[in-house]
Amino acid sequence: MTCRGHDLMLTSESSSVAETGSKTFYMNRPTSESSWLNGACANSGDCPASVNNAECFKGGHCLCTPGYYYSRCRDGCVPDCPTSNLQSTILRYPFHHISGHNMETISECYTSKTAQAHCLNNPECLSFDISPPTCWLQKVTALDKPDDFEYKANNDYYQRTCL
């Protein structure tokens, strides 16, 4: 994995070196999961204050505010993600869905893994809802349509993550 910033490049290589004649510095980035993402919480104060747009989501886990992408390179939450940086990993927001913005409805969709596979096969898919045996793919996120992001007991909302 290579993560690029303004004057910083983070790679999974084992050494840290400055590039000669450049302002670019190469350094290690741990490949393990975030120390805070999906961590147990009772309220948003239990999630790191240093991470903008992180909250204790219903269900008691620290997540990005619905619609924000978790960025592994930044170990934080970002409002936008270029299509080329979308990842195959997803975050689950239990008992929620986006109402009225389905680009595709899939029957016989019994698991989140099946829904995820359909989403990854559609380059426009940013998120999906599932209520077995049906799932719905979307090219919007909860941040794009906050008024349509709703509690729904038998649904779960999933959103792709970002590099």
UniProtKB/TrEMBL annotation:
It comes from Littorina saxatilis. This is Apple domain-containing protein. It comes from the Eukaryota. Residues 81-162 form the Apple domain. InterPro entries: Pan_app. PROSITE patterns: PAN.
